[in-house]
Structure formats: C-alpha cells, structure tokens
Amino acid sequence: FETPCGEGLRLGPPAQSASAQVKTESTELLLPVWAKRLASGAKRAETAAPSRAGRGRADLFSPRGDGQKRFRRGRLIHALLQRLPEAAPESREAAALRWLERQGVEAAEAAALARESLAVINDARFAPVFSLSSRAEAPIIGSVGGKAVSGIVDRLAIETDRVLVLDFKTDRPAPTDAALAPEGYVLQLALYRAVLRTIFPAKAVACALLWTEKPHLMDLPEARLDAALEVFLRG
Fold first, then answer.
1. pTM for the full model?
2. Of 2, 50, 182, 232, which residue is the least packed, with the fewest Cβ within 10 Å?
3. Nearest to 43 by CA among 168, 185, 157, 143
4. pLDDT digits over 99-118, tens only?
5. How many CB atoms lie within 10 A of CB 60?
C-alpha cells in the first residue's frame, strides 16, 4: 500500500529485480559435476519392457491383413474390454458402438468389434476376470534379474489366495493349445509373475491369455513360465 507521502511501505526482505531473481534461481539449480555421475562401481539399470517381448517376430502377426491393421484392431478391442465392464450390461452394446463411432470406425467394422468384445465380457466362464476384485490396465513395476521391469497388465484379479494376471490377445487364428502360445507372450507374463510374487508373497500367481476371437481362456502352465523366465535370466 502507499503512505500519505506517496511512498510504498514493504514488509519483508527488499524486492529483487526480475533479472536478479532469474540469476538467483538459475544459480540455485546448478548441480556439481559429481552429482551427475554414477557412483563408483554402480551400473545403470537395464530395462525389460514385457509388452515389447517378441515384438517384430513374424509368428506374432495375424495371417490376415497387414500388421498395422492388426494392431489397430487389437487396440480397439483392448479399449473396449477395459471400458465396457464398468457399464450396465444392458447398455454395453450401445456404449461400444458410440465409442467406436467417435474413433472413426465404420458401422460394419464397429458392429464386429463390439460383438467380439461383448462375447468375452458376457461369457459366464470369464466372470471372475471382470469381477469387482479385478482391475483393468494395472501398472506393474519391479525388478527381475537385475533388470527393471515395467508394464501394464490388461486385467489383474486379486483373490483371497491367488493373483490372476490376464492378458488379452486378438491374434487370428487363435491357438487353442498352451504349447502353441508365442514365446514372447509367455515371457511377458513370466516377468509380470516374477514381480507380483515379490508384491504378494503369500499368494499364488496364476497367468492366462484370453484370446478374444473364440473366445478362449488359456491358462499358462507353471513349467512353461519357468522355462521362459530361465532363458531370460541367462540372457
């Protein structure tokens, strides 16, 4: 405020000019050279991204259409499987079609994508996967064999005595035998399992692939997961 003499009265330390403030702030943010170096004997953590395991392999591509179209279809179905369980059963189809229309999907394709997604969600066999104890798009962060592991689990169900890790796969045609599941997918879930075992040491961790084309829930055997993880650790 101003005094009767027209002079301002300031409480606190003297004001600094804008240039002085910038100079002070830039000086405070400077770090010594040693702070930017690794400590003696330390190694930078390598990162393993499970969702990228096996990417680029020919056997992970659908024989129908090109890879870009396949990935677009997969992204749309994943998004529907993430969103639709939260909607009331009677309104899911309309909600799916509205959302797909906003994504620029033509009516015929939208109907097919909605039908495939709803066949999964409405199947009584998969009810535990979409129950209130499950969570969509659950982030997983940890370390396996000295490598940082981070990824997103399509569906994570935490039950009384076990944790279920579920990954949606839209490959066509979908395999029906777990022995034919692509190695990259198995490794992806093996890494998630290894991290979750440290988070939930008192619970069993089960892994499964849910193929949307059939649909078909494929439990992955412990031996197959163990073998994939062993190869990873040796590498």
1. 0.67
2. 2
3. 143
4. 999 999 999 999 999 999 99
5. 17
